[in-house]
Design brief:
135 residues, alpha/beta, 2 domains, two-stranded parallel ribbon, 7 strands, disordered C terminus
Length: 135
């Protein structure tokens, strides 16, 4: 069974989520999709010039994960530009900083910190451990 994906922390939703080549009707265009978290990795690394390590800290994932995200985003963008495809930005495994998180196992909700540790433990699970009298 594969490991569950870690949510990436994104500063804000993108203001523009669709780009298309000029002069070609939308109905005849193929679409290439990049995810919101991949766009955030592009913004941090390529636009702001952060290292992969710095971007990983912002996204709260590992450096190799950022490298894989950037590789996917670069491949998708290159395909769209070379082959004249529309680019759509949607989806991904992310949460906005300062927004509400939900545990996929128990459904507990908590507010995501704007900054903090890499580990985001389920609030209910943590409380259960703290209240467990133990042996």
């Amino acid at each position: 069974m594969p490991r569950p994906k870690k949510c990436r922390f994104v500063k804000r939703e993108p203001g523009v989520t669709f780009f298309k080549p000029q002069g070609i009707p939308l109905r005849v265009l193929e679409h290439a999709v990049i995810t919101v978290d991949e766009l955030e990795a592009l913004r941090l690394s390529d636009f702001l010039g952060m290292s992969h390590e710095e971007a990983a800290k912002q996204l709260k994932v590992s450096r190799p994960t950022v490298t894989r995200m950037l590789a996917r985003a670069h491949q998708t963008l290159a395909d769209a530009l070379v082959n004249g495809k529309a680019i759509r930005i949607e989806g991904g495994d992310y949460v906005l900083e300062g927004c509400e998180c939900q545990c996929p196992k128990c459904g507990a909700r908590w507010s995501a910190p704007a900054s903090g540790s890499q580990e985001h433990v389920c609030v209910e699970g943590k409380e259960a451990e703290d209240n467990d009298p133990g042996p």
